[in-house]
């Protein structure tokens, strides 16, 4: 019955999508750094800590803003920042490291906190008092459910899109392509000069390069989809009713 309340229904939807963003990007960034950049666990941790710091320093700011701004405006700001960060990531290359990932990670962490605080207020702020206890448990479930579903969808998309892009790229790596032929001949000659089976090694290296680019393109596809998803949430905030002033905070992770 709680879903009959429009604000609670949309707030739960927002929480579901925030779960996709929270857990999905926590999965995507390390996967990119390990699969494309070849980082080890320590290097990934050193690169990823920026998002945690951004969330830590933005939390008190979000608390202050929640007492001064319309929660719908705060949510729109948070969703816009998140969409901007994922849009920047949709232009990713195989050379991106800490500094290229810095701004997207800051946007991710700060936008998450700015959006999460008012989502709780919007979802529960217009419910009757007797329904809040049971509704809050259902509301918290939606974020975890969003994370679980989001991870499954993201991983499936990465696998499928990588296969599609590999097939498309591989079509152009053949003897009819002068650039591909020249690279294979160059690699073959280089390995032959060291007494190795240059032809076989050259083909394996070319296949590895194509696979890396296919994986990179699949990451770009997923980041673009996340951008579209969070941009749509900005429009949805206009459908909400302004809740009563919140008496206290509530949305821990």
Description:
By secondary structure, the chain is an all-alpha fold. Helices cover 78% and strands 0% of the residues. It contains 7 helices and no strands. It has helices at 6-35, 41-66, 71-89, 98-124, 129-170, 178-192, 198-236. The longest helix has 42 residues, at 129-170. It is elongated, with a radius of gyration of 23 Å.
In brief:
The chain has 253 residues and is mostly helical. The protein is 78% helix and 0% strand.
Large-scale geometry = elongated
Residue-averaged pLDDT = 88
Structural class by SSE content: mainly alpha
Tally the helices: what do you get? 7
Helical proportion, percent range: over 70%
Secondary-structure element order, N to C = HHHHHHH
